[in-house]
Amino acid sequence: MTRPSFDEMHATSATVREHYKTYDRWLAQQPRDMMKQRREEAEVIFRRVGITFAVYGDKDDGEGTERLIPFDLIPRVIPAHEWREMEKGLRQRVTALNRFIHDVYHDQEILKAGIVPKDQILTNAQFRPEMIGVNVPNNIYSHIAGIDIVRAANADGTGSYYVLEDNLRVPSGVSYMLEDRKMMMRLFPELFSENRIAPVAHYPDLLLETLRSVAPQGVNEPTVVVLTPGMYNSAYFEHAFLAQQMGVELVEGQDLFVKDNFVFMRTTQGPKRVDVIYRRIDDDFLDPKVFRPNSTLGCAGLLEAYKAGNVTLCNAVGTGIADDKSIYPYVPKMIEFYLGEKPILSNVPTYQCREAGDLQYVLAHLPDLVVKEVHGAGGYGMLVGPAATKDEIAKFREHLIANPSNYIAQPTLSLSTCPTFVESGIAPRHIDLRPFVLSGTEVQTVPGGLTRVALKEGSLVVNSSQGGGTKDTWVLEDGPSWQTQSQSQSQTGQSQSQSQSQGGQSQSQRA
Fold first, then answer.
1. What is the rounded end-to-end Cα distance, in angstroms, of the chain?
2. 500 φ, ψ to 5°?
3. Model pLDDT, residue 3
4. Domain total for the chain?
5. Residue 259 sits in which domain range?
6. Do 142 and 23 share a structural domain?
7. Circularly permuted ATP-grasp type domain spans which residues (predicted)?
8. Is 368 a member of any domain?
9. What sign does the dihedral 289-291-297-301 (CA atoms) show?
10. Least confident piece of the model among 125-139, 194-208, 307-321, 384-398
11. 3-class DSSP state of 429
12. Is 209 domain-assigned?
């Protein structure tokens, strides 16, 4: 029998958890019409600012290729003590993952020790032989990591956090975290006086600080750019948003060129050297001389300039080897191997279908498991057994038997739920959390992250491409220190919102 989901807000049907009590009292006083009006207001503002994502495939829904990511008005609230423990676990995990990537492309000690099977690295599609022996600043490969966290109920009614995935290549979603917070401040300013909510608006400053800290040796005033594949990319809004917030140039591959192993961007004042590239393009498209020869998204000669130490790519080429789902089961062992510590955050138990015994178990229990492609993303290429039809399970079984090494499987966790404002009123919906971890001269986070919510009743798939939405994530502090900051941030957020609205309109016109 499936264990009931952990309810983030309610300990029992009649009891509200301590960290939600102030919000619950406020919510009880609000008429439903007001919440509906605020939701409509949010949709208008988001559309005006241009906070959309591109959808590929069927376009018969009348909305074209651009859609709003639905925004829910009810925040996900995390108490300070829970966040502090999660933050320690995130730093530990990302530190070990960066050590692992460096090791894989240098001494390969973890492979020699037999902790990670050698063939799972050297034959992996995400392994980049071009990076062997290449030194990168501070030995940091994944400067921006998005770690997906879920919470499941325990037998005693408590909930435990688990890491579901590590996103170490080009993780997205942080712009929605920032815009969700600005929207909540605009719609409900009184909540930020009544609750001590840790701010997140300083994330672009931390990001720029991180990027500048890994500039090539000897560069004191680095030029940083954001490299985007262009306006048709699903996350283009985020690329433009982060470039604007950091005050750096947003460039496409055609804006860059390499000369004498240095990277330059074309400007109206002539060529300007580029020192750090925050790239939002996958490895395969970065350099047509090395990877896909038909790619027009990257810059020819970029890898040679990178290997010469004349430009820093964030994230580094080859980081995908550590966020491949077939490598995920080994992360707890990586933490022990590199750091000599026990993992603070647990993995979800995982079956590797490349192993005969695991495959046999998975084939026998497909209706009860979640099966994922090791290179899959966005909720695609996966089977959620309990929600699948017999026909879907049968077809997936054929794929699994044909190519077992392409899949992992996990027990179906009943993700925690959070009250969500839907058409029928307030109802529980499943959620996850993507905190963003920045690694430069130090490892840093902002409190919280992006909470994604599965808006379809009973659905466990939170991805925006599969109909999911987002919520503001509040980390409540114990002391009074955040209250003044939150009020100050509210004023800043409102002025930024007006400024961004104007900028977003011009972006929308260009699109």
1. 50
2. -65, -35
3. 66
4. 2
5. 217-310
6. yes
7. 75-454
8. no
9. negative
10. 384-398
11. strand
12. no
